[in-house]
Design a protein that fits this description.
Layout: H1 22-29, H2 32-39, H3 64-76, H4 81-90, H5 92-97, H6 110-127, H7 131-146, E1 153-162, H8 170-184, H9 187-192, H10 194-201, H11 205-210, H12 217-235, H13 243-255, E2 256-259, E3 262-265, E4 285-289, E5 292-304, E6 314-321, H14 326-340, E7 346-349, H15 356-364, E8 368-371, E9 384-389, E10 392-396, E11 401-403, E12 405-406, E13 411-416, H16 417-421, E14 432-433, E15 437-442, H17 444-458, H18 470-478, H19 492-517, H20 519-543, H21 549-566
Parallel strand pairs: 1-7, 7-8
Antiparallel strand pairs: 1-5, 2-3, 4-5, 5-6, 9-10, 10-11, 12-13, 13-15, 14-15
Helix pairs in contact: 3-19, 7-19, 8-12, 8-13, 12-13, 14-15, 15-17, 20-21
């Protein structure tokens, strides 16, 4: 049964803060943990997580805001789970950040912490909704409004988030999967295939590969193909719910084809980056970027970038397979980004985000796409396309300018052949000779591409380098990885948890540093939040139920007006 955690709203008479001397109490109240408690912990909408629990009367849940805040703190400080629980039990500042003001309470046990994450994963698998993304979106929306951060100009970039897995060769992966399948076989199946599996399961996959000559690899792959085929045909009906067999079946389909009831090894050229990279991470994909082998995920981040902003905050975070093109990511995330920040009208990216489909989508949403570089080689002889009125275009080449005419499916610009005859670039010109004239065909996508190419040059100088600072944000994310650039987690969902938790932490860190430099603003912000939550609690007591949106909206508007008036 779901129950909100309201115990932190009534401080204990015997809390540890009251036992500290005044100087230390003041340091406690001015710590970033105290600010984290107010700006993150207290603003987590626990009601969003009610779907994880039974609706019938039963044992209540552990505090959701404490569980979520603990995940954020764990990734913020790069703690292991064991270190997190040590901090919760023995660190006063950590307990303050989690709304715990006494030393005699442990809010949850390790089993509850892991079960909560499993519930989040199961809910995402069933519905496609990541509840931690809702936490990030809710916190960010309130922060953007409270600090009056302009969101009409933003920037986006992605980075490789390597999974914490071993890099297997093809043969070693096939052997490793066989070893793991052998562990889950029933005794009768293990005895039945003992002779076939004996060369592989008596040692580790690394030891097997170490004793293998390079010239033996093709023959060994053929043997593995025959073994995989025989095992699959014999066992495919006996292990329907076993994960190890599902992994085995996936590898069998990815690496072999069946020809006349015999398994043939697929050539390496037919393998792609989406095949299984490791049995320890079923979601990791492969991509080679800048000469580096990358196995894992890709994290795309978007943040505000208006020059007038005193600070910029992350507005969107998304996790994709690392072999997904950046242009595809932008096409899929564009609707979500604009839904969260409706006034977006200028987006800065690098050259990988451009595509004809994105040009059309951005035009429909009236967003200017500014790229520091554009994919593709410009034409040797330029054809400048200008739109005069809706549906009317003018095309200008180095020698002449002509109006375009609608063709059956495209537009065409007809140039005078006599003028073209004296042009030194006529042999490289995209306009082709036809009926005593030269004709250039184009469509709307050509115009949009040219407009995107010119977008950077049309900006004022101070806005041409806005994209560069997103690299600092990328470093903040990658700082939580190890020296090899690998994540502390495996799997797409856990990577998403990592990304959203770290995004909340990064935004909070920026706000904390900004308000530390403006103490008067910080004090005002705390007073407004205090008024907001006191009124919120009073209405809740009066209604004896959840506070409805119609009741909460005037409070939010009141808080905004007070903030703007005082600022």
């Amino acid at each position: 049964m779901f129950r909100r955690n309201v115990s932190h709203q009534q401080p204990s008479l015997f809390g540890f803060a009251g036992q500290l001397p005044p100087a230390k109490r003041q340091r406690l109240q001015s710590s970033w943990e105290h600010e984290f408690y107010q700006r993150v912990f207290c603003q987590i909408r626990e009601e969003d997580f009610a779907v994880l629990y039974a609706e019938t009367s039963s044992r209540p849940n552990a505090p959701v805001n404490t569980l979520v805040a603990s995940i954020i703190l764990m990734y913020r400080h790069h703690w292991t789970t064991e270190q997190l629980f040590d901090r919760i039990d023995f660190d006063l500042l950590t307990r303050l950040a989690l709304g715990l003001d006494t030393l005699d309470v442990t809010p949850f046990c390790p089993a509850t912490f892991f079960n909560f994450q499993n519930r989040l994963s199961g809910h995402y698998a069933r519905t496609g909704v990541n509840l931690l993304e809702k936490v990030f979106d809710g916190l960010t929306a309130a922060q953007l409004q409270a600090l009056q951060i302009r969101t009409d100009i933003q920037r986006s970039d992605s980075f490789q988030a390597l999974s914490n897995i071993r890099g297997y060769s093809r043969t070693q992966l096939l052997v490793e999967v066989l070893i793991r399948l052998h562990r889950v076989l029933r005794d009768e199946d293990r005895t039945r295939f003992a002779a076939l599996l004996e060369p592989y399961v008596g040692q580790s996959s690394s030891q097997f590969i170490y004793g293998l000559e390079r010239a033996e690899i093709p023959h060994q792959l053929e043997q593995l193909g025959r073994l995989y085929h025989e095992l699959y045909e014999a066992l495919k009906g006996g292990y329907p719910d076993d994960e190890s067999f599902a992994v085995f079946a996936r590898v069998y389909r990815e690496h072999f084809t069946v020809v006349e009831n015999q398994a043939a090894v697929k050539p390496c050229a037919q393998l792609h980056g989406g095949i299984l990279q490791s049995p320890d991470d079923l979601d990791a994909t492969y991509r080679k970027k800048h000469g580096r082998d990358c196995r894992g995920q890709s994290i795309n981040v978007t943040e505000t970038a208006h020059p007038e902003n005193a600070l910029n905050l992350l507005t969107d975070v998304a996790v994709y397979a690392n072999n997904t093109d950046d242009s595809t990511i932008l096409g899929e995330r564009l609707a979500a980004i604009q839904a969260k920040t409706p006034d977006l009208n200028e987006l800065h990216t690098d050259g990988a985000y451009g595509s004809a489909a994105n040009d059309r989508a951005l035009e429909e949403r009236q967003i200017t796409h500014v790229q520091t570089a554009v994919r593709g080689r410009p034409a040797e002889v330029s054809m400048a396309i200008e739109q005069a009125e809706e549906g009317n275009y003018t095309v200008t080449c180095p020698r002449q300018s002509v109006p375009a005419q609608p063709a059956r499916k495209r537009y065409k610009a007809c140039f005078a052949a006599a003028v073209c005859a004296g042009c030194p670039g006529r042999d490289r010109c995209p306009a082709k000779p036809r009926d005593r004239k030269r004709t250039y065909y184009f469509d709307r996508s050509n115009y949009l591409l040219q407009r995107r190419r010119k977008a950077l040059a049309l900006l004022p100088p101070e806005r041409r380098t806005l994209r560069a600072n997103v690299e600092a944000t990328i470093r903040q994310f990658s700082g939580a990885m190890n020296h090899k650039g690998k994540l502390p987690v495996r799997g797409r969902f856990r990577t998403m948890v990592y990304a959203y938790a770290l995004a909340v932490s990064i935004n909070f860190g920026r706000i904390w540093r900004y308000l530390a430099e403006n103490p008067a603003l910080a004090s005002l912000f705390r007073r407004i939040l205090g008024l907001f939550y006191r009124r919120w609690a009073a209405l809740r007591r009066k209604q004896k139920g959840w506070l409805s949106p119609s009741a909460s909206f005037p409070l939010i508007r009141l808080a905004e007006r007070l903030f703007l008036l005082a600022a």
